[in-house]
């Protein structure tokens, strides 16, 4: 791991469950990353969260992280953010306080926080669809996924890029950690690893043998989708991106890589698969898909027109494809198009890249005429987090290798900008809220 600034390793050392609660000494004000507007986030001092419902817990966050989903929201390509919302949906910490109805946890316990919020008792939660919980979203049972630090439609709930966070339905939304699992490991499970596992799961890789899996996008979630695909029994994984450092990581994980700034990805995929295409594809790019900036695909100037309407729709919500920082993607449906075109006939497309409700472009004709099966959605984090905690404890996964940066909270805005600019080596940023 590359350390940007002197890390305070001690503050990140596993805290044993017997650590006494610090309720008495808790500060009343905390630092948090706050959304003020599109392309405008700030490190503010805000009041500490407090228990609102007897099912809540307050967690002192010892590790957080910046996700590609946070970028969509700051870029404006995932609209609906409310000014004042604390950002972030990845967190590990120590329980400070529990409400009177939380019967399975106690202050002092180390926990990882699954990104999406579930009630644990509705029919969806009982079936494992925790990201479609009927109860957790205050906007009602049809509003969709509830998660921390998201747009109005998702709650909104204050997020986890803060010193403290309120966790609703804490009995199900906190997963205790074994002392031997480090914060560096656990922070990867909160969202990126569990989403990668979810993507590989809904791509239905396990059914049958000899599966060739295409992973579109080699950000942190894409890299965990590669690992998830191997875990589910893939025989070959092909990964597409344009950033050489991320493609190098994908190659280290055993994927056959294609740089879409250097070659036509569809032709390269066909060549690698005997003209057939992959059996499974996982889109891990989402709405901020970018057009090639060079190479043979750059000549497709007409594509700019093709995406004009999609880009205009994003612009209406405040996104700007030409902004100096936090520029939105200029080809929102491109990854979905490439994945659908590349897939073998009767293949399966899993979509875990995030698209806003206003996005309605998808190559349905191509998919229909190839008998493509599609599955998609927000990860049902809870189930995968629990599974992955056990896998990491047994030594079956070393998720911390995907982390590339450890940044103190004092540098968080600069860290966001550098991650957004996709500077070389900036694959996944872990945040230390206490530093
Ligand atoms: N479904 C869920 O529950 C869930 C959870 C977490 C993240 N996500 C989503 O997963 C996606 C990836 O997250 P991340 O943190 O890895 O983001 P990221 O921004 O770090 O990675 C996206 C990658 O896609 C690449 N890319 C851009 N245009 C492309 C194109 N045309 N073809 C192929 N690759 C292209 C980028 O270069 C980048 O490496 C985001 O959309 C994020 O919102 C979904
Ligand atoms: Zn995320
Ligand atoms: Zn529920």
From TrEMBL:
Highest taxon listed in the record's lineage: Bacteria
Entry cofactors: Zn(2+)
Domain Alcohol dehydrogenase-like C-terminal: 220-291
GO MF annotation: an example: oxidoreductase activity
Keywords of this entry: Metal-binding, Oxidoreductase, Zinc
Domain Alcohol dehydrogenase-like N-terminal: 54-175
Entry keyword annotation includes Zinc: yes
Protein name in the entry: Putative Zn containing dehydrogenase
Family named by the database record: Belongs to the zinc-containing alcohol dehydrogenase family.
Alphabetical list of InterPro entries matching this protein: ADH-like_C, ADH-like_N, ADH_Zn_CS, GroES-like_sf, NAD(P)-bd_dom_sf
Origin species: Aurantimonas manganoxydans (strain ATCC BAA-1229 / DSM 21871 / SI85-9A1)
PANTHER family: ALCOHOL DEHYDROGENASE (ZN-DEPENDENT)-RELATED (PTHR42813:SF7), ZINC-TYPE ALCOHOL DEHYDROGENASE-LIKE (PTHR42813)
Lineage of origin: Bacteria, Pseudomonadati, Pseudomonadota, Alphaproteobacteria, Hyphomicrobiales
């Amino acid at each position: 791991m590359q350390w940007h600034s002197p890390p305070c390793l001690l503050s990140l050392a596993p805290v044993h469950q017997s650590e006494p609660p610090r309720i008495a000494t808790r500060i009343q004000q905390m630092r948090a990353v706050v959304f003020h507007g599109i392309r405008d986030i700030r490190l503010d001092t805000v009041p500490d969260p407090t228990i609102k419902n007897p099912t809540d817990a307050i967690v002192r966050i010892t590790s957080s992280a910046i996700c590609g989903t946070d970028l969509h929201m700051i870029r404006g390509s995932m609209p609906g953010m409310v000014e004042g919302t604390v950002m972030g949906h990845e967190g590990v910490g120590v329980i400070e306080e529990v409400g009177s109805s939380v019967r399975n946890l106690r202050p002092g316990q180390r926990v990882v926080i699954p990104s999406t919020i579930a009630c644990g008792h509705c029919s969806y939660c009982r079936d494992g669809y925790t990201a479609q919980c009927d109860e957790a979203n205050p906007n009602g049972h049809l509003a969709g996924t509830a998660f921390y630090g998201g747009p109005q439609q998702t709650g909104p709930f204050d997020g986890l890029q803060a010193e403290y966070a309120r966790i609703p339905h804490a009995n199900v939304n906190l997963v205790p950690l074994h002392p031997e699992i480090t914060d560096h490991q656990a922070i990867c499970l909160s969202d990126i690893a569990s989403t990668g596992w979810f993507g590989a799961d809904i791509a239905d890789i396990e059914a049958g043998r000899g599966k060739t899996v295409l992973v579109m996008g080699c950000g942190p979630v894409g890299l965990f989708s590669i690992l998830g695909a191997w875990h589910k029994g893939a025989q070959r994984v092909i990964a597409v991106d344009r950033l050489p450092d991320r493609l190098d990581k994908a190659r280290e994980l055993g994927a056959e890589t294609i740089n879409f700034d250097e070659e036509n990805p569809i032709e390269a995929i066909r060549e690698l698969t005997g003209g057939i295409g992959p059996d499974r594809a996982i889109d891990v790019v989402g709405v901020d898909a970018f057009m090639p900036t060079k190479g043979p695909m750059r000549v497709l100037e007409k594509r700019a027109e093709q995406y004009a309407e999609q880009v205009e729709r994003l612009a209406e919500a405040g996104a700007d494809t030409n902004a100096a920082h936090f520029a939105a993607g200029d080809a929102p449906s491109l990854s979905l198009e490439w994945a659908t075109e590349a897939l073998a006939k009767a293949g399966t497309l899993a979509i875990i890249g995030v698209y806003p409700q206003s996005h309605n472009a998808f190559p349905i004709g191509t998919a229909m005429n190839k008998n493509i099966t599609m599955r998609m959605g927000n990860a049902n984090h809870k189930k995968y987090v629990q599974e992955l905690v056990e896998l990491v404890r047994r030594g079956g996964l070393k998720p911390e290798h995907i982390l590339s940066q450890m940044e103190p909270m004092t540098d968080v805005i600069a860290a966001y900008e550098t991650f957004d600019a996709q500077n070389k080596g900036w694959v996944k940023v872990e945040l230390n809220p206490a530093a």
